[in-house]
């Protein structure tokens, strides 16, 4: 693990020539300060944090559909560079985005230090970071633009150790609203009464990860947000990806080709079918008759199931043949 003094965002860069560049710089500095608690807890570091925009003058240029960008060093503790979109795209007025939205993107990009792809393991870790961020919010560890701790978006007054009940209620409501914004952005699995990732079987993890990928792609975290594997500067990340469970692949029969299933009576793979439909029908009938004959010869044994699949350009047609005992 890196030294505690090294677990931080080391440098920042913004687009100094764009409008409201001073506001953008303060926003980037606030992200830098507030990320330090998470980086220290995880033993991570970010060498450079830069502004991402659709304009050429930005330190990092990407289309408006990309919300952030991370280049991991590959050692499971360092990000060489993280880029965050601080402004809405040009067509939406280039307005400065809220801190909660930008920091939600920061949590997403920090997760890429460990997991390059948007797998179930990626979203499990991102939800952990989101919960950790909520805890920091609840304890007043969030810093405002001047570096003072805040609760619910309001600076904590050190002279008021016992605020009024009304003020405390307002602060709690404001903090809950901000947590909800981050959860909605990050797609936290905590919402909706869903079970924790660790409680899910692999199949359900893969399904939930697929849903998250689809929903977050609309928020700027689609395939364009992922860095090229060539950008990862060392081998451990690739080894880690290889160890992660892959998404279940759907195997389709080749075009114009027959597939064998359990109970098929043919000793070898079926040849490519002729182009003429009438010849295809003839071969299909012959195969069905052969399977029926095979089933009838095994009547004294347990019932067997024969399955022949014909795949064509329009779709797959499946025929199941089940042998039955003689009446």
Automatic annotation (TrEMBL):
Residues 1-215 form the WLM domain. It comes from the Eukaryota. InterPro entries: WLM_dom, WSS1-like_metalloprotease. One of its GO terms (cellular component) is nucleus. Signal peptide: none annotated. Residues 212-246 are annotated as: Disordered. PROSITE patterns: WLM. GO terms for biological process: DNA repair. GO terms for molecular function: metallopeptidase activity. This is WSS1 protein. It comes from Symbiodinium necroappetens.
């Amino acid at each position: 693990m890196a030294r505690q003094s090294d677990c931080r965002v080391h440098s920042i860069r913004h687009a100094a020539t764009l409008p409201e560049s001073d506001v953008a710089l303060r926003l980037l500095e606030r992200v830098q300060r507030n990320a330090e608690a998470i980086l220290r807890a995880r033993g991570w570091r970010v060498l450079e944090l830069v502004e991402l925009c659709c304009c050429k003058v930005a330190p990092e240029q990407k289309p408006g559909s990309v919300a952030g960008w991370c280049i991991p060093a590959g050692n499971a503790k360092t990000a060489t560079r993280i880029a965050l979109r601080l402004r809405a795209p040009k067509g939406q007025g280039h307005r400065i985005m809220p801190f909660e939205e930008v920091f939600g993107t920061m949590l997403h990009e920090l997760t890429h230090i460990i997991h390059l792809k948007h797998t179930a393991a990626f979203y499990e870790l991102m939800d952990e970071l989101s919960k950790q961020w909520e805890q920091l919010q609840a304890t007043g560890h969030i810093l405002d633009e001047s570096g003072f701790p805040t609760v619910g978006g309001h600076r904590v007054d050190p002279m008021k150790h016992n605020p009024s009940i009304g003020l405390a209620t307002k602060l709690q409501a404001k903090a809950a609203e901000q947590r909800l914004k981050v959860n909605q952005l990050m797609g936290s699995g905590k919402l909706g009464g869903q079970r924790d990732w660790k409680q899910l079987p692999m199949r359900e993890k893969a399904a939930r990860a697929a849903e998250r990928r689809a929903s977050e792609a609309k928020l700027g975290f689609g395939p364009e947000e992922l860095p090229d594997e060539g950008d990862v500067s060392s081998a451990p990340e690739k080894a880690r990806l290889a160890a992660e469970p892959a998404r279940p692949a759907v195997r389709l029969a080749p075009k114009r080709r027959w597939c064998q299933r359990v109970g098929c009576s043919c000793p070898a793979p079926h040849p490519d079918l002729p182009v003429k439909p009438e010849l295809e029908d003839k071969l299909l009938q012959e195969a069905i008759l052969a399977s029926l004959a095979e089933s009838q010869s095994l009547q004294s044994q347990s019932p067997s199931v024969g399955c022949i699949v014909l795949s064509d350009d329009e779709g797959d047609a499946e025929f199941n043949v089940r042998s039955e005992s003689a009446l």
